Amino acid sequence: MFNIDAFEALIEKARSEQRGLAPTELAAVLTSLRSETRNEVLAAINAPGLEDQHIERRDALEAIVLSAVEKSNEGASSAVTERRSRVLHAAANAVPGDENRSLIPGTSELRALIAEGTNPAGGYTVPTETAHELIGKLAAASVFLRAPGLQVRRFTGGSFLIPQVQSSSAPGVVAEGASITEGTLSFGAQTFKPIKYASLYRASSEILEDASVDLRNEIAHIMTRDVGSAVDVDAFGAGNGTTALKGLTAASQGTTTNFSTGHTAITWTDILNSVTDIEATGASATVVWASPDQAKPLRATQTTTGEFIIGSPTTTPTDRAAGLPLLVSANLPARTVIVADASRIYVGVRRDVNIAYSADAFFGADSLGLRLTYRLAGINVAEATSVQILKASAS
Fold this sequence. Notes:
Blueprint: H1 4-16, H2 23-31, H3 35-45, E1 55-56, H4 58-72, H5 78-92, E2 100-101, E3 151-154, E4 160-168, E5 185-192, E6 195-204, H6 205-210, H7 215-235, E7 255-258, H8 268-279, E8 287-290, H9 292-300, E9 320-321, E10 324-328, E11 336-340, E12 345-358, E13 367-381, E14 387-391
Parallel strand pairs: 3-12, 7-14, 8-10
Antiparallel strand pairs: 1-2, 4-5, 6-13, 8-11, 9-10, 11-14, 12-13
């Protein structure tokens, strides 16, 4: 339901901050209008000379909305008529150059053709009487990068170099006044080239103009989540560090225990044993990663009296394992639990997630482009004993 007071408060707020309406503010205005009024407003905004501009007049939008509301008698009142008259008077005496940023995304938005006509391709985002929100399947954020204590290092240049002490001489007992034997250290290094993750989409200007949500930000958010999921696939995989990140399950990255036939579910005893194995070499476990098929029996394990070992589901968080964060991801290999000291795991960031818009890539098709890139290098584990990989038997 259109509310003249709320609308004017929105306009005055934008005016006081010397800006145009943000996409979310415009969406709120459009969704408050009846469909026929909304269509008239969109048609006026997209009139020749306005549709491709990135700078629009805030006051022009105000006049357009008030005119359409008055014409359709939607919320019609003397307040609407009076306000519209004042706006038109002010516009007639306005000083040229009072433009603000785009009220509706212009021709610089996204790259995998999202056409208005087909629902799976984006048509659900076009306003209707019953749907004004983008409905999509959420992808999990990066579970690997959420591990507490993970060593994320930014670097420059073409490679990520991690110095390592490969060996050292043991200290000894020295008698009073005796010479101290000089120790020896052997140094080495591991070098990784950055891996680029990228995503590219495009969309017609029509779908962006007609969407009742901030589609540009929604798609950017989805792209970011998808890249996070792709990072998890590599981080928990067995890549070689050249064509993909060197995953935690790659050879020499961790210490793997393959359980024999019949041991189809990792137990709390297995996890506690792994914590002890990590502590035996001076590290300290900080995280437990689990594939969904293994997290399920862990959370469901009960004592002989029927109490859940992980704690009561109604009073105790079920995202802890032996006091450690229990992070579940479908991107882990099946039947896998990884217990690790994340402070002994190193990953390099060459370029943070970067989203760029293009007004030119699909200019001839009146479509908009969006590109996401992210560059990582690694993964390096300081010592294999700090990452305990538990593999349940398939049968």
